[in-house]
Amino acid sequence: MTLPPDMITLHGMAISQKSIKILWSAAGGRCAFPGCWERLCYHEAKGATPYTLGEMAHICGDKPDANRHDPDQTDAERDDYQNLVLLCPTHHTLIDRKENEPAYTVAVLHEMKAAHEARVLERLDKDESLTKAELARTILPLLEENRQSWAQYGPMSELARTQPHNEAAHAVWLSERLSVIIPNNRKIASLIEEHKALFDTGEQEAVAAFLMHVRSYEQWVEDSIPYAAVRRFPLNFDELIRGISGGGA
Fold it and tell me: Domains of the chain: which residue ranges?
């Protein structure tokens, strides 16, 4: 699968699809600069074409005259996920200004990236004591957001069918997968794992099927398995959550 060039600003980089996907997913589709948290995908633009803003900044610069350039790095190391941080255009420009190099060292940028990714995980992994009905009502909006992303931009959407060559729309769908669907899936999976005992024996099959879907979907997005190996989204899990949410079980 090839990502359209307008999904992110590549600046001629030779970054692998796997590194791109891991970076966007781990960053939650948000700028990693402290205090920014800007969402880097926009699709509610009053009828305008959907677009993304995310820029993958090199921590150790990719060119000899770039900030923080390390001549001992190989080309593969420079373009690896470990040497990249996802930023909005404003903060990408800020860290790469020559006069700002003493403030944004390699160590500072690695710490910035790690803190941001930890914050993303913290928002996904909050431990709460929930009843079964409360759990379902917490999960349902996440499922619905995923469903809306799929319906609006997915391969079976009206937009995809009527405009199959609209690269901007396709780029937004790829970004939605990385910054909306995968984080939501992780949140739901975390909630389920924490409260799995709330589900009855007869409900465990749907729960297990969803967890398998989450694991396989993320492995596919990160290019670890082929699409044919992805467990399809189990509709009985959606029905289960909606039933519990509405019935207050």
Answer: 5-124, 132-247
Q: How far apart are CA 53 and CA 97, in angstroms?
A: 19
**25 burial type by CB count under 10 A (0-12 exposed, 13-18 middle, 19+ buried):** buried
Rounded (to 5) percent helix, strand, coil in the chain: 60, 5, 35
In this structure, are residues 214 and 193 in contact, taking their beta carbons and an 8 Å threshold? Answer: no
Torsion angle, alpha carbons of 231, 232, 238, 239, to 10? -100
Burial 123-137 (b: 16+ CB within 10 A, else e): ebeeeeeeebebbbb
Predicted TM-score (pTM) of this structure: 0.62
Closest alpha carbon to 239 in 247, 228, 227, 231: 247
Q: Distance between CA 217 and CA 226 in Å, rounded?
A: 10
CA pair distance 212, 214, nearest whole angstrom: 5
Q: Quick check: 171 and 52 in contact, CB under 8 A? A: yes
- What are the φ and ψ backbone dihedral angles of 57, each rounded to 5 degrees? -95, 135
Q: What is the pLDDT along the chain (249 residues), one digit of tens a residue?
A: 334 333 344 444 588 888 988 999 899 889 999 999 888 875 554 444 555 678 999 999 999 999 999 999 999 999 999 999 999 999 999 999 999 999 999 999 999 999 999 998 887 665 456 789 999 999 999 999 999 999 988 888 888 888 888 888 788 888 888 888 999 999 999 999 989 889 999 999 999 999 999 999 999 888 889 989 999 999 999 999 999 998 444
- Residues in Cβ contact with 60 at an 8 Å cutoff, skipping those fewer than 6 apart: 68, 69, 70, 73, 78, 83, 106
